[in-house]
Write the structure tokens for this entry.
Amino acid sequence: MSELFVVILLLNVLFFAVGTFVLLHKKDVHLKRKVKEIIDEINEKVYLIDSKIYFEIDNMPISNISAEDIVHIKEKLKKDESHFGEYVIEKDGDVIKLLSQQYKNEIEKIKEKYEESLHEQEKLKDKEYYYYKEFAEKLTYVLKEINEFHREIRDISNLNIKFKLENIKDKVEFILEFFREKGTLDLHKYKLYRIRNLVDLLKEEFEGKLSIEFKIDNNVSAYYVEIEKIFAEIKAILYLVLKMKISEVDKNINLNIKVEDGYIKFIIKNNTSNFSFIRLIDEDFMFVEQVKQQKWRFTVEENLVSIDVPIHDFGGELTDEIKTMTIHSHLDQIKDVIKLVLYDMNKYGFDNNEIYDMRLTLDELLVNAIEHGNKFDKAKHVFISYKFSNDGKKVAIEIEDEGEGFDHENIREPDILSMRGRGISITKKLVNEMKYSNGGRKVAISKEKEV
Amino acid sequence: MITVDKRENYISISIVGQFEYEVSEQFLEIVKNRIVIANTKAVVIDLSRVNYINSIGIGTIVTAFKLLKEKGKDMSLSNPQDNVMKVIKLTKINEIIPVLTEGALR
């Protein structure tokens, strides 16, 4: 779905950008008309969340709300309060704000739903809960689209264009913040694919547009990625960086893919002098979930862009499914994570002692991630992923926080009489393997059934 | 849940359930405010009904042991379940804190 969305988005942007570029020469009457069309189009999309955008060009407002409309709306508000309910109108130049009851209801529903679901053990199965999460995510995409559009016209026009977006951003932030505060547990299942499959997909996508050069390590077959999760985002970033220029650049851009240091690295190199990559701004990253969550490393230079995506190294034998969870820095959430992992271990036939060991292990490592890693910062996440080996005899788990890391190569045995600092030393003795990486932010453990 | 019993020649503190975050705080409160000033020399922590302990629980036991030692009191642990005993051994606290088993308290 999101792929399709990105494609539609890009087509829109491309179409408009080219259109506007031509129109610029015919003076801004046309531009204004065109901009208005686009605004209408976007407004249609954002209508659902009851927001409006406004543009000014050379201090002349271009708004799809005329003076008559304002009068009309005011009249309507007087007559029909049931439709708009609570509202705010601020006349500030040509900008008005509408805050509708309908939207407030939506938020209230989310709240109620969440409160209810807190009492239910089966919170994860609550479809409506997910519906509202999805709602928040959709809003994020709409915002992305609008920002994209704004940057587009700003980039290609010398006119002084002001951009005003009412409501949407606040709404998105409000909802996301709400989920952040409450601390949610995102559980996803992804199929794991060999990296080669991802490369093939990218090849297909960029065939004839980019020359893809592969430098892949020999041992790459040992590595797996969640293609469903990352393909769309990689693609979006590539299009973003190369935006509009993709037909011009042809084969002068190389995409080099290699595996190194626990990451799959996408390095995009520009070999021409008459083209440089689009400079990305912070807001661009805001919409790429993986980058936002700081799981991906990202560098943009004039002629070089690199994206590093973490990969999974679970050793040779694999089932084809991985489960991932994201929690915020709440100690309460630890129990939810542990419950899910232990439940699956039980399903795979691990015995009670092994399950107990894992309970203690996860308890220690997750407390460490939240307390010492994220320092209880609720905006920071802890990422958990786990999977079982094909024969069901081994479980492998990765836990990563967003803290500053620590010197994992010099872990001291704790003093017997100290209050704290036993977590890692206990854990080490309970699992078969334990490996730190990413400067101590990430720990990978595995536990095998005893024969 | 934590209960404190004064026996003939020792104080028994017994904990029920999981010995982790919240219990640890309560436990230390009790030790600091009540046990330290009691006039009995021996203190026994009854672990027979503790079904789970993590490193925070272990750290708490060690801290209590030190606090009591400073006041000249002897603290010991009694009757831990197998999985709790496992953690006690892993962290080697049994090398400094005596662990008593059934019958030792007669």
User: Anything to note?
Assistant: The mean pLDDT of chain A is 64.
